[in-house]
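Homework help board

Subject: predicted structure for assignment chain

Our instructor gave us this sequence and asked us to write out the predicted structure in C-alpha cell form, then describe one feature. I got the C-alpha cells but I'm not sure how to describe them. Can anyone check?
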Amino acid sequence: MAEEGSPSGEGGPCPISRLLQSPEAASQKEAVLRIVRAARSQPAAVMPALAVMLQRDKAPAWQKVAVYRSLRAMVEHGLQVEPACDFIVAASKQLRASPEPDAPRELQAAASNTLTTLARHHFNPIMTELQQQLRPFAEPDEFTLLTLGKIAAGNVYSCVPFLGITLTTLQTVMRCIEDSQRRKALCTALEQMCRAIRTYLRTWERSSYPRVSVQQFSAYLLPLYACITRTWLPGSDSQVKLAALKALGPMLSILLPRTEFQAQIYGDIELLLAEYESGINAFHVTKILGQILEASLVNSNPIPRTQVELLARTLTRQICSSGQKGQPPRQEHSEENRAEISQIFLRLARSHPSELLWVFQGKLEDVREEPRVVLLALLAEIVAAQLPELWSRRQLCVKALKAVLGDERTRVRLATLRTIENLLRTGYLEKVEGWPLNYIALQLSISAHQLTHPTLRLRLGGLEEKAVERASAEALQVAVASGRGASQELWVRMLGYVTQPHYAASATPLCRALRQLAEQRLRQVVHGQDGWEPVNSPTAQELMACLLVSAVGPWGPREVGVPLR
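My C-alpha cell output:
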C-alpha cells in the first residue's frame, strides 16, 4: 500500500496508520505533529499515504479526522499539500456522506474546515467542486452550505465572481429545505456571504475582477430575505430563528440603502415584533429593529406612522417583563437589550415625535406601576437627549408627565422627579413656580416625614424613600441653577428647608441650592431688578443663630437642626 513506505516523525519508515493508534485527544495531537514533521522531510511518500487513508471506507472516523487536522497544520506551517485534487475530492465526498455512524458530524466538520484552509491556495478547484454539489431545485447538503459560507468569509475578493450564481441557486433551493439543520446551515452561510459582500463593497478597488454594484447584490438577496422573514421565521424552531436573525443583520445593511426595498422591509416589522413571543433571545430581534429604525433616519424615509404605537407598546412590554414577578429569569444580553430599546425610542422620537408622545400619554394613564416607571424612564432619556425634533413638542412631554402626578407609589414618584429634573435642565419647563415646585416640595416633605417618623414599614429598609429624598433635593438644585427659579416663593421654601430637623439628610444639596439662589438674588439687587415684596423670613442674624445651634445640637443623625419660630 502507498502508506507502507511513509516515514515516521523520527525519520525511519513506518506506516501512517501506526502513528494513529489511539483515539485519545492527546495521542491525536501528538500524531498530527509527527505527520507534519514526516511530511516536511518526505512529502512524496506521506501525501499519497494520507490520500489513500481518506479514501478507505473502513478507516475509523477518528483517524480521518486526525488526517484532516494534519493537512490543515501543514498549510499553517507553509507546506504544499499535493496532489490537492485528491484531498479536495475526498473532503467533498465526506461533506455529502450520510449521517452517523458512517460519517459523524465531527468528521464532516473536519473535512469542511480542511477545504476552507486549502481554499487559500486552491480556491478555484475547491469552489468549482462545491458549485457542482450545489444544484438548482435540489436539497443541498448541510456541510456544503457551511463550507461555502466559510470560504466566502475567508476569501472575500476571490469569491465575488461566484456569488451571483451561488445566491441565485440558493433562491431555488430555499423552498426545498424542510429540516432544521439545513435551514440553519443556509442562514449561517448567508450571514457569512453578506459580511463578505459588505467588506467587498467598502474596499472593492482591491479586487482584480470587474466591479459588482450594491444594486446587483441587492437583487440577488431580496428573494432570500423575503423567504427567511416571511416563511422561515414564523414556522421554524428556535435554533433556525436565531440563525435567521443573525443573517438578517448583514443582509439588511445591504438592502436598506435601496429606497425601492424599504417599504417591503418596513412591512415586515410586525413579523419581527411577533418573534418576541417565540422564546428566543430578545436582543437579536431588538438589534434588527434598531437597524431598520436607524436606516430610516439615515435615508430620510421614516417608517409608517401606523407602526409607532405597535412598536412602542411591544418594546415597553419587553422592558416591563424583565422586572415583573412570575416572569422567567432574565435572558442573556438583557442589559444590552434594554439599552438598544432605549435607542429605538430615541429614533422614534426623531422620526415621529408627536405620535410617540401621544402613545406615552396614553400608556402613562394606565394605573399599573411597572409600565409607568418604564415609560417615565424612557421619557426622561428622550428629554435629556435634547432632540431638535422634540423642542416644538415640549408641551406634549409636560402633558404626558402630568398624568402621573397623583401616583403615590415610591418608584413612580422617583421616576417622576427624575423626569422633572431633565425637563428643567433642558428648558422644557419655562418656570419653576406652580406645579413643578409644588410637586418637588411635596415629595421632599413626604420623604423627610416618613424617614423621621415612620408609621409603616418602608420597602427595602427605606432605601427607595431615601432615593426620593435625594432626587427631590437634586431637582431643587437644578431648578435654582436653571435661573428660572429665583422667585420669592422658592426663596421662602429654601430657607425653611435648611433649618428644619427632618430635612437634615438633604442639608448639603439644599445649602448649595440656597447659596446659588442667594447669589442670583444678590445680582438682581445690584442691578436694581429686585422687585420682591417683603416676606416673613428670618433675619440674617436669626438664620445664623439657628444654623449654629444646628451644628452643635445633641440630635441623632437625622435630627440635626432647629425649627424657626
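Reply (TA_rk): Your C-alpha cells look well-formed. For the description, you could write something like this. The radius of gyration is 35 Å. That's the kind of observation they're looking for.
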